[in-house]
Amino acid sequence: xxxxxxxxxxxxxxxxxxxxxxxxxxxxxxxxxxxxxxxxxxxxxxxxxxxxxxxxxxxxxxxxxxxxxxxxxxxxxxxxxxxxxxxxxxxxxxxxxxxxxxxxxxxxxxxxxxxxxxxxxxxxxxxxxxxxxxxxxxxxxxxxxxxxxxxxxxxxxxxxxxxxxxxxxxxxxxxxxxxxxxxxxxxxxxxxxxxxxxxxxxxxxxxxxxxxxxxxxxxxxxxxxxxxxxxxxxxxxxxxxxxxxxxxxxxxxxxxxxxxxxxxxxxxxxxxxxxxxxxxxxxxxxxxxxxxxxxxxxxxxxxxxxxxxxxxxxxxxxxxxxxxxxxxxxxxxxxxxxxxxxxxxxxxxxxxxxxxxxxxxxxxxxxxxxxxxxxxxxxxxxxxxxxxxxxxxxxxxxxxxxxxxxxxxxxxxxxxxxxxxxxxxxxxxxxxxxxxxxxxxxxxxxxxxxxxxxxxxxxxxxxxxxxxxxxxxxxxxxxxxxxxxxxx
Amino acid sequence: xxxxxxxxxxxxxxxxxxxxxxxxxxxxxxxxxxxxxxxxxxxxxxxxxxxxxxxxxxxxxxxxxxxxxxxxxxxxxxxxxxxxxxxxxxxxxxxxxxxxxxxxxxxxxxxxxxxxxxxxxxxxxxxxxxxxxxxxxxxxxxxxxxxxxxxxxxxxxxxxxxxxxxxxxxxxxxxxxxxxxxxxxxxxxxxxxxxxxxxxxxxxxxxxxxxxxxxxxxxxxxxxxxxxxxxxxxxxxxxxxxxxxxxxxxxxxxxxxxxxxxxxxxxxxxxxxxxxxxxxxxxxxxxxxxxxxxxxxxxxxxxxxxxxxxxxxxxxxxxxxxxxxxxxxxxxxxxxxxxxxxxxxxxxxxxxxxxxxxxxxxxxxxxxxxxxxxxxxxxxxxxxxxxxxxxxxxxxxxxxxxxxxxxxxxxxxxxxxxxxxxxxxxxxxxxxxxxxxxxxxxxxxxxxxxxxxxxxxxxxxxxxxxxxxxxxxxxxxxxxxxxxxxxx
Lengths: 488, 488
What we know:
Two copies of one chain form a homodimer. Chain A is α/β, with parallel strands linked by helices.
């Protein structure tokens, strides 16, 4: 069903030079997808990875619609088994075909999203979504924000019915032979109602707690637990278990690091609605949050946009293996970028920002290097990440989402990073903070207009008094005890 | 159980001068609470309202813990009946006593929050929370953001049990005699689970739609409906009804006003997680959102913080009367400000920002003037609002949350607005935009440091070239197609 070789042949890559490569990468599962991200993923592999790394121990699984259709989805089951065996997985974006796409591609079936099966197969505990920080790039949070979202339970697997007036009864029958208990009995008076039943399985909360607090400790950030437990009282259980784990295993370490000094020396709980406010207020970052499934869904998207966009957040599914080890699946946080793929097929230039995919791939490679203890691999990952980051902050020399229309194409960016990695790019441009725009996008008229507003006496020069008044007028006067963001 | 007179006596106010007052206010329900907001509410009434308005037709209900205890909560039921009869209600913040407070106050019972009974009694459809805009004050959203949150249903009234392994079955029995149907059947494998059952009553969705779209049309903002319906499929029903109402009654009007030009001429739906991102992106404002109960809870708090704080958002419960008329209850979005009350009791100075309470009171007075067609009353409200707003933007002359430690006390602010309203304050300070700080808080060292960074050749003057480079360095270079916020 799979093999590195067969995949090499399928994707047209050759591994002839494997023997000469310096670093032999430890095993990893590489899931290939399709469209623009498959095309770009292939470029990254060929140009950035393979010249330096022997990836012959990687197992490739093709989760394109065609491959799933050809194998009657056996490839998905194989890939889940491989993930359990190997522990570190990278997944390119895939397409979940609609009925229309099913017909267009001549599929036997509109294969569903693979995520549910993966989450179950790898015994998912949390989905981690953390802010990505590119040195020299102005982003929303100054310091890391970590998030763990319970990967199971809640309304995602709810049963429901749209019903008229009547009565609804819910009964729970214990497996231990104890008598049944009534969970809920209600009278519905409206002529149209949605009745909804779901459950939260809580056995893995202590594992989630260890995972989350361990990560926060490692990153030296202050942890917070988020629920709506004052109103949704069943959520008290999640808080109780997390607090117990924290107090027994982590409290002292966090205290010693001074990470609880702003929260009374104790683990703090925030209500979900209050958390949605703190995320806006705490732009300094340096905190972690752990929440139920749906709250995590909404709050991590809020974090993404405050930071810059979903592309600046990681996405890692953390599952637990039968032997207690952690399985990690790293994904890009975007889809297959269909529009760009269509442009590419029409022969037009494209400019795909590789950050989200590469952060995931480098994450998987690093985790694999940790699992199999291959230090050179971790070093390689850091070097490649650094080459990508430093290219991204050169004005006009990043992809066009950052540099505007004169930025580099998908292929030019790959080439530029390759040169940088290989040391051909000797001049390291000093990173200049830019507002996501290239020089020719600058509005010089606006600058002049602004200058004239500040240059009150109109002599073409701004002195310190005009400067101070100008800042006041622009409402960006620095204050002693709360300097506005841009001056920090 | 109530009367204006008895309340006057209880609160120590006198109505002896009623006969001389110019405007006779139409009926309104005024719910008094306790602690700091009761003290301040009394000041606002005595100093700002009563000198100009005869409030003898207002009905006062005292929802303090003591009053509820004394009347065995009859005062709450009476107040709900009065709300139905009169239609416009203002509520000061109240205390929901904890067990500790019950003992301290010597109450018979820890009386629960009155909100649930009010919501039911007034047949609540939505809770509206809109941004407040004070001219001359720099706030997060440039234009109004309107929000309507379904006031009933969802997890707030869920039934639940914490259970072990077993099976859960939910059955619905229609009132019309049709056979029972299975809503959900599930096997719970964990040793600890929360099982949750709730329903969304959907009969009032078309009323919510009319309310929401009518408000958006009136405010000339683009409406959006927010659910998680792609995953929580039962929510499709809410969207379907809202879309039907929109297409049949509102689409053309919105199109004619050009309010659908950025969304393909159609009503748009956003997923809740995407909405949490758009709220960050759309800082220009000028939109409305309508959502289920819990999504509305979380998203309106996000809006509050982006705009500035919950105090800059209104809070109005909209219910529907038996005759189809709308009942509106206006509240402040904060509590009784216990800390400040304790300071006040210790004889210390306090500085309560009246915005949230006064926006609610003026809202209730305006709505009452609309219900009973008393135009002079609406004009009075506008004039008083304007006096409060204009006082709030005078540097150093607002309350201390805005002006810093040298700002006015609670009582001084009341006095200043009173003088302003009466025309005694002849010098209208030109509104200067400030960053929440008084002049003496300005960090002059920081300004000089910044000036020197921009003044590259160090001649003590900034020319246009240095200015341009400086803006670049500060990452606030205005761009042609996406000028940064502060330059708009």
